[in-house]
C-alpha cells in the first residue's frame, strides 16, 4: 500500500527557500564491490540508498545500528556514522546536500530512517530518473567541481534531484521527521553565508577570508563575528573552514584531481599541511577518505 502523502509541506519565506543549498553529488547503482565496513567517517552531506540485494547497516556504533534489507530504503543522517555492507550488497545510491545556509541538514532529527520501498513507489521512480541523466552527462556518476556542463544538462540533472527530494520530503513528513526551524535571520549574516557557500575551490584558497567578507558586507569584523555567533553558534572562521572541508571532500570523491592539486587549490602551503588539517577534522587522511568516502 502506498504511503499517504501529507496534506502540506513545510512553508518558508521565499528568501529562506533561496538560501537553502540543494546539490546533487552522485547517483549510481553499484553491486559486489562495496567495502564491508566503513568505520566512523564524517559526511558533510546526506544520502538515500535503496538496498537491491544483501543488506546495509548504519549507526554511530555497533550497539546502535539500523539495518536495511532488500526492498528497503535507508536514509542516512549527515555527520559521523559507521557503515557496514554485506559482501553481496547492491545499492541504488543518491547523495545530495539539502542544507541550511549554516551547513546543517534541513532534515536531521529522526534520521537515519528505514522504510519499505513499496510504501513509496514514486521515490524509486524519481531516483531512477536521475541515474540515466548522470550516466549520460557525468562520468562515473559524480558531479566534479570543475566539470563543464551546458545549461540543459545541468538543469535536467538538478530538476531530477528536486523531484526526488520532493518525494523524499513527503515520506519523511509522514514518518514524523520534520525540517529544522529557520528563523528570520540577519541580512548581513545571510549575505556572508552566501559568499562562503558560493565560493569555488580557488576562491576558498585565496580570496575568501574573515576580513574580505566583513568588508564586502560593510561591517567591522568584530561586529560581523558577534552577529554570526549569535545567529549560527559558529564563528566566521568556522564556517569558512567547514566550507573548505566540504569542498575538499567533494574534490576527493570526484577522484579527478590529485591530492597535491587539491591542497594547493585550497591555499595550503603543502600536501602535508593539507593532510594534517584534513585528518584533524575527519580522523582519516585524504587518501583514506577518497578510497572509502563514495559509499555514504
Automatic annotation (TrEMBL):
> Which interval of the chain is the signal sequence?
none
Q: Which Gene3D superfamilies match?
A: Homeodomain-like
User: Do you know which SMART domains this protein is assigned to?
Assistant: HTH_ARAC
Domain of life assignment: Bacteria
Per UniProt, which keywords does this protein have?
DNA-binding, Transcription, Transcription regulation
HTH araC/xylS-type domain: which residues?
203-292
* Protein name (database record): Helix-turn-helix domain-containing protein
The organism's lineage? Answer: Bacteria, Pseudomonadati, Verrucomicrobiota, Opitutia, Puniceicoccales
Amino acid at each position: 500500500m502506498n504511503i499517504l502523502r501529507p496534506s502540506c509541506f513545510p512553508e518558508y519565506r521565499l528568501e529562506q527557500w533561496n538560501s537553502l543549498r540543494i546539490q546533487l553529488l552522485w547517483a549510481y547503482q553499484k553491486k559486489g564491490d562495496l567495502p564491508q565496513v566503513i568505520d566512523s567517517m564524517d559526511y558533510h552531506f546526506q544520502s538515500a540508498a535503496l538496498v537491491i540485494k544483501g543488506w546495509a547497516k548504519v549507526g554511530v556504533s555497533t550497539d546502535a545500528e539500523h539495518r536495511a534489507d532488500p526492498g528497503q530504503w535507508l536514509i542516512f543522517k549527515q555527520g559521523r556514522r559507521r557503515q557496514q555492507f554485506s559482501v553481496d550488497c547492491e545499492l541504488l545510491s543518491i547523495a545530495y546536500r539539502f542544507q541550511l545556509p549554516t551547513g546543517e541538514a534541513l532534515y536531521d532529527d529522526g534520521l537515519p530512517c528505514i522504510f519499505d520501498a513499496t510504501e513509496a513507489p514514486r521515490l524509486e521512480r524519481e531516483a531512477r530518473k536521475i541515474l540515466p541523466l548522470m550516466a549520460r552527462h557525468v562520468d562515473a556518476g559524480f558531479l566534479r567541481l570543475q566539470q563543464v556542463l551546458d545549461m540543459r544538462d545541468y538543469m535536467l540533472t538538478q530538476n531530477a534531484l528536486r523531484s526526488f527530494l520532493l518525494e523524499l520530503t513527503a515520506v519523511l513528513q509522514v514518518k514524523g521527521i520534520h525540517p529544522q526551524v529557520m528563523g528570520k535571520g540577519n541580512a548581513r549574516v545571510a549575505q556572508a553565508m552566501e559568499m562562503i557557500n558560493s565560493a569555488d575551490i580557488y576562491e576558498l584558497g585565496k580570496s575568501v577570508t574573515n576580513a574580505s567578507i566583513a568588508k564586502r558586507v560593510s561591517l567591522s569584523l568584530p561586529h560581523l563575528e558577534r552577529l554570526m555567533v549569535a545567529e549560527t553558534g559558529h564563528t566566521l572562521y568556522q564556517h569558512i573552514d567547514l566550507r573548505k572541508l566540504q569542498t575538499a571532500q567533494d574534490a576527493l570523491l570526484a577522484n579527478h584531481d590529485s591530492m597535491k592539486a587539491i591542497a594547493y587549490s585550497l591555499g595550503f602551503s603543502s600536501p602535508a599541511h593539507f593532510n594534517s588539517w584534513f585528518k584533524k577534522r575527519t580522523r582519516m587522511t585524504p587518501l583514506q577518505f577518497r578510497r572509502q568516502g563514495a559509499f555514504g
